[in-house]
Amino acid sequence: MTFTHHFKRIFLLMGLLGFLSNLFSCSDGKSKFKPGILTPSGYYVKNGKAYWYGGFSNAELIELTSANAATFAPLSEKYPNVEFASSYASDGKNVYFNGRRINDADGQTFEVLGFGWGKDARNVYSWYSVVSDDAEHYVDAKGGLQKDSKHVYSGDRIVSDDPESLKYIGTVGGRSYHSDSRGIMAGEIRIDSADVATFKPLEHGYSVDQSQVFLIEATKLEIVKDADAKTFQVMSEFYTKDALNVFWRGEKLPGVNAGAFKIISEEHHCSCDDERVYHHYKIIPNADPAKFPVGKRLKYCNDSEIVFE
Fold first, then answer.
1. Residue 282, by phi and psi: left (phi above 0), alpha (psi -120 to 50) or beta?
2. Which run of H or E residues covers position 177?
3. What's the superkingdom here (predicted)?
C-alpha cells in the first residue's frame, strides 16, 4: 500500500509539472521550439528558424518568416555596450525591433541608437517609422534636441525647419530652451512672440523677455497678464510676484499688497498680505491675518476658511 501510494504521488506530480509546462510555454507546432516559464524574452534561432519570444508577461512566440536564420543574430552582439540593443536583430538584410521587421531598414548599415531608435545609411527610425531621411547629417543638439540638414527634432516631431540658426539657450528646472530665426523653443513648445535677444528662462516653467512673462503649464503656453517683466520674480512653484502684483500660477491675487505678501503654506496654497488671506488666488472671506493665533500651526485652508491647530 505504501509503495502504491508513493507511486500515485509521483504520477500526480509529473502530471502537474506537465500541465504547468503546457500552460507557461508555447510553440509554433512544427519546429517544436517550446520556450518555458523561465525562458527570457528575446530572439532565438532553433531548428533553422528565427523567433521572437515575448517572455513570461507577454508569452507570444513569433516566427520571423522573412529572416534568414543562418545569418540571423541579435544586435546586442554587435553593440554590447548599447542599452536595449537586444531588442533589435538582423540577418544582414532585414532589421527587426521587438519581433517586427522595420520596413526598408538596411541590415548592412543599421546602427542601434537606443530603445526604439536606430539608423542606417539613409534614414533615422523611431520604432518602425522614418523620422529623418538625412541620416548622414543627423546629430544630437544640446538640450535634448536632434537635427539634420533640413529640420530640428524633439523626439519624432519636427519643431523647426531652421537647423542652421538653432542655438541652445540653457536648461532651467529640467526644461531646455533653444532659439532659431522664428523665436524660442521650449522642447516641442514654441514661444514665437518672445524677443530672442532679451529672453530669459526662469524656474517652474516661467520665462520673461523685455516686456512679457510666459508660463508653460504642462504642454500649454500662457502669457501672464498684468505682470511686469522687468520686476517679475519666481518665489516658489506656485507663487510669483512683481513690484505691484502677486500671482498664483499666473492668476493675479485681487487687491494684494505685494510688499506685505507672505506664503503661509505652499502645500495648502494658502497666503496673505497685511489685510487679506488667500486660498490659491481667491480671497477667503472674513479671514483676518491680524487675528491669526500666535504659535499655532496651520491645519488647512480652503476657499471659505482658514483653520489652525
1. beta
2. strand 175-179
3. Bacteria
Residue 9 binned pLDDT confidence (cut-offs 50, 70, 90): low
Which CA distances in Å does 225 have to 214, 249, 252?
A: 9, 11, 8
* Chain center to CA of 173: 15
DSSP 212-235: -EEEEETTEEEE-TT--TTT-EE-
3-state secondary structure of 142: helix
The domain limits of the chain are: 2-154, 224-309
Quote the cell numbers at residue 46: 532553433
Q: Could you tell me the pTM of the whole model?
A: 0.79
In sequence order, the 6+-apart residues with CB closer than 8 A to the CB of 104 are: 123, 130
What tens digit of pLDDT does each residue of 115-162 get? Answer: 999 999 999 999 999 999 999 999 999 999 999 999 999 999 999 999
Per-residue pLDDT at 23 exceeds 50:
no
CA distance 71 to 106: 14
Cell numbers 521650449 correspond to 186
3 state DSSP class of 11 = helix
**Cβ atoms < 10 Å from Cβ of 215:** 19
Q: Using CA atoms, how far apart are residues 149 and 158, in angstroms rounded to an integer?
A: 12
What distance in Å separates the CA atoms of residue 250 and residue 261, rounded to the nearest whole number? 16
Q: What spatial distance separates the first Cα and last Cα of the chain, rounded to whole Å?
A: 75
Instruction: Look up residue 55 and give its three cell numbers.
Output: 517572455
Query: Do the beta carbons of residue 72 and residue 43 sit within 8 Å?
Result: yes
CA distance 238 to 270: 10
Alpha-carbon Rg for the chain, nearest whole angstrom, is 31
The pLDDT assigned to 58 comes to: 59
